């Protein structure tokens, strides 16, 4: 199987045909892709001959996409379809860039798209354009609107519940549940997963804890989270803040940086949640800076996405193994066949039994010089 970072083809005149077509659509359609109306008839491909799969990931500041999602997906597709080719692009958080990348891939002739949308609503144009050309779409990790063919992610409502319940358990252990208030740092308003995390967390927090300050964080930006946390510290006062719900590890890093800059020692940091089990997040956990993260086993997610892509391209039932299909409704009201995986809470106590035992990180990767003196590393090395 060949993999290439997607580069549009040059015309004889030296221009980029694919990007030019995409830009023309963006200009004429005010940033939305056009469709030809009825869905086109789909061509059926074979594993023996192979076909082209477009993989579109949303950003670079969330470490998992380049470190795990992309290589795991490529590995799993290689197993299922050795003669397939992957065209890859990362939008680096830019909605219009992702539209341009998708249009260029469609112009280049991809046979199936695996799309992790920067903005779920804006991605509806990409989904519609693909369908109009007979190209099936797998919504990966985030549910793009517009009627994707299949979807794989985690039970995102459950993710928010796991985070919130973990924070309440930490506060109960510290006997601070009835003291002060928590700061709540949700994710990007354009990410439908963030809305699900938010709903799950607030459902757990309701009538259980006082929320002193609550934010949505544009683009999942750690810098923005840092600024928001500084504002919360100014508004509430350090002594009032008993815990922080941060929706992912990037936001947690910004939150912890703001607390440390305000003079809070590691020993006195309130419990802070996270998500994605990023290496830096795991290291903060073993160092006592971050209380927990949510581990979403990315390899099974990538495996399911590859199976869905092959199944849609070949017209056969995807080989989902032990996973079962359910149905979800996207933001535009379309019903989509989906696989939803179960999230796992990771604290200092089970780092070894989760991300290490699953081969996500080695002890050596976690226990770098700055963390070698932690209890975890002292016991593991």
From TrEMBL:
SUPFAM superfamilies cross-referenced by the UniProt entry: Periplasmic binding protein-like I
Signal peptide: 1-24
A GO CC annotation given for this chain: outer membrane-bounded periplasmic space
Keyword annotations of the record: Signal
InterPro entries, per the entry: Bact_Solute-Bind_Prot2, Peripla_BP_I, SBP_2_dom
Source superkingdom: Bacteria
Keyword Secreted belongs to the record: no
Protein name per its UniProtKB record: ABC transporter substrate-binding protein
Sequence ranges assigned to domain Periplasmic binding protein in this UniProt record: 54-317
Keyword Signal: yes
Cross-referenced PANTHER family: D-XYLOSE-BINDING PERIPLASMIC PROTEIN (PTHR30036:SF1)
GO MF entries: carbohydrate binding
Subcellular location: Cell envelope
Subcellular location, principal: other
